[in-house]
């Protein structure tokens, strides 16, 4: 492979080809430390032309490619295998702003720009890019697109699929698809860019994107509310939507088990503990005090067990910090079997009740940590056992997953609402995805990547298997 690596260096420059273990190490281990790979090398191209040349070279030598952005995948979607024969292509050098058009509310950026950088550029221009994730300081736009990322504001603004106007993509054979259109309406045939959003790098390598911007909200009303059941939380969601329309930006829920964990590791910061906590936020133009008063007046007509309203930006950030601390807090408390599931919002109460009953019948010491984006039906449904049983937790992972996913699909849901499929869930996708949909996915993969060189071993096996 020395001739191949010399050719890679000729394309991107020798300093941008990493081969020593101490240099490649950050690219070989996934975010949750479940998958450890061994790449042939890591190449760091700086332009779309260099990416195209690399993919042409990989086709010529039949070398598999693993695209990697910020390496924040929780499913091993950006981790190479252990063969030592896969080239990781890292995109951090493709990080330029290409255009921003405030009159058209659009921005064009390269795929290696972090989400936080895009947010900052939008804010500096008096606009909002609404995608918001816990990893926004390190995750990259290419990865957000490849997993169709959602985050905290999907309820109002949608996922990356809804936020994307155009893409530039290098196909597996090195051809470049130039579709960086900023149009919102185009009925000229199939919208082929949609093939690459959510494809986890298996159909091509995204190098740039044109994204939607929105007016920057000047008013926020944020409340931490307590209700006595998950059904009450979903009823509150429906009522808020009816009362405030698309000013309802976010609606998060957390079970009492989540709240007790937060109290354990962040004592004194929770305003109260109720069977279910809701973090709801309205955003709009105008004055925050007026919007907050509208929310207070409306809440006075509802059945709320307890509640606090953020009266300042500092209060608002304090409430958000509690929600954003949930994942790290659970990690501090020990291992868990994590599920990034989605069901229709209306089905959340039935799913929670039925799934807990089914799990407890088989695993009596189960502890369920349920929280997430109830406004769009995306729950983080995480399973552990009470100690000392938790030491054997992962011996039961397949059995736990089968119970959870069976009920998810019984409620017309999905096993991957936000974090993708990757290596972690590929075999479950084969079990639950509609067979015809799977075959269509394989057919598209076969057309675009007949040799199966793009990110093999993830949601579809390479070569149309």
Features:
Uridine Diphospho-n-acetylenolpyruvylglucosamine Reductase, domain 2; alpha+beta; 7-stranded antiparallel β-sheet; 465 residues; Alpha-Beta Plaits; globular; Uridine Diphospho-n-acetylenolpyruvylglucosamine Reductase, domain 3
Can you tell me about this structure?
- This protein has helices at residues 2-12, 21-24, 48-61, 115-124, 141-146, 154-157, 160-163, 230-244, 256-265, 288-299, 313-324, 326-333, 348-362, 397-410, 426-432, 435-448; strands at 17-18, 41-43, 64-68, 86-90, 97-101, 106-110, 127-128, 164-170, 176-179, 205-212, 214-215, 219-227, 248-255, 276-284, 306-309, 340-342, 366-373, 378-385.
- The chain has 465 residues and is α+β, with helices and mostly antiparallel strands.
- It has four domains: 2-91, 2-Layer Sandwich (Uridine Diphospho-n-acetylenolpyruvylglucosamine Reductase, domain 2); 97-215, Uridine Diphospho-n-acetylenolpyruvylglucosamine Reductase, domain 3, CATH 3.30.465.10; 219-327, 2-Layer Sandwich (Alpha-Beta Plaits); 334-418, Alpha-Beta Plaits (2-Layer Sandwich).
- The protein has a seven-stranded antiparallel beta sheet with strand order 15-12-14-13-17-18-16, with helices on both faces. A five-stranded antiparallel beta sheet has the order 5-6-10-8-9. Strands 1-2-4-3 form a four-stranded mixed beta sheet.
- Strand 8 and strand 9 form a beta hairpin.
- Helix 1 (2-12) packs antiparallel against helix 3 (48-61) and helix 9 (256-265) crosses helix 12.
- The chain is globular, with a radius of gyration of 23 Å.
- Belongs to the FAD-binding oxidoreductase/transferase type 4 family.
């Amino acid at each position: 492979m020395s001739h191949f690596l010399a050719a890679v260096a000729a394309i991107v420059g020798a300093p941008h080809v990493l081969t020593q273990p101490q240099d490649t190490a950050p690219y070989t281990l996934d975010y949750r430390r479940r998958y450890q790979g061994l790449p042939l090398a890591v190449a760091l191209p700086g332009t779309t032309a260099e990416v195209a040349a690399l993919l042409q070279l990989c086709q010529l030598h039949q070398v598999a490619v693993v695209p990697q952005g910020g390496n924040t995948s929780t499913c091993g979607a950006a981790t190479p295998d252990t063969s030592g024969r896969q080239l990781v292509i890292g995109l951090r050098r493709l990080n330029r702003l290409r255009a921003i058009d405030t009159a058209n509310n659009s921005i064009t950026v390269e795929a290696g720009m972090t989400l936080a950088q895009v947010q900052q550029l939008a804010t500096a221009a008096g606009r909002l890019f609404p995608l918001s994730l816990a990893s926004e300081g390190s995750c990259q736009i290419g990865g957000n697109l490849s997993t169709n990322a959602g985050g905290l504001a999907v309820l109002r603004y949608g996922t990356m699929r809804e936020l994307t106007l155009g893409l530039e993509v290098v196909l597996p054979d090195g051809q470049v698809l130039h579709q960086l259109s900023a149009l919102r309406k185009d009925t000229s045939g199939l919208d082929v860019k949609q093939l690459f959003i959510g494809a986890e790098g298996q159909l091509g390598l995204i190098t740039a994107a044109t994204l939607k911007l929105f007016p920057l909200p000047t008013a926020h009303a944020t409340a931490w509310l307590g209700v006595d059941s998950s059904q009450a939380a979903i009823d509150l969601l429906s009522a808020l939507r009816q009362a405030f329309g698309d000013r309802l930006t976010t609606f998060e829920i957390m079970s009492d088990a989540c709240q007790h964990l937060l109290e354990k590791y962040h004592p004194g910061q929770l305003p109260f503990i109720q069977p279910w906590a809701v973090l709801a936020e309205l955003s709009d133009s105008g004055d925050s005090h007026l919007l907050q008063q509208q929310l207070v007046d409306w809440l006075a007509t509802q059945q709320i067990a307890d509640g606090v309203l953020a009266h300042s930006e500092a209060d608002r950030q304090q409430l958000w910090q509690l929600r954003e601390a949930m994942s790290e807090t659970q990690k501090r408390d020990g291992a868990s079997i994590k599920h990034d599931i989605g069901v229709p919002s209306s089905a959340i109460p039935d799913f929670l009740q039925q799934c807990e009953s089914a799990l407890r019948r088989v695993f009596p010491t189960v502890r369920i940590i349920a929280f997430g984006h109830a406004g769009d039906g995306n729950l983080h449904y995480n399973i552990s056992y009470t100690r000392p049983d938790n030491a054997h937790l992962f011996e039961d992972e397949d059995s736990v997953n089968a119970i959870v996913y069976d009920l998810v699909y019984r409620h017309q849901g999905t096993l991957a609402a936000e974090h993708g499929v990757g290596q972690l869930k590929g075999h479950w996708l084969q079990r639950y995805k509609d067979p015809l949909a799977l075959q269509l996915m394989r057919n598209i993969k076969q057309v675009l990547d007949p040799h199966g060189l793009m990110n093999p071993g993830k949601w579809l096996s390479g070569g149309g298997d």
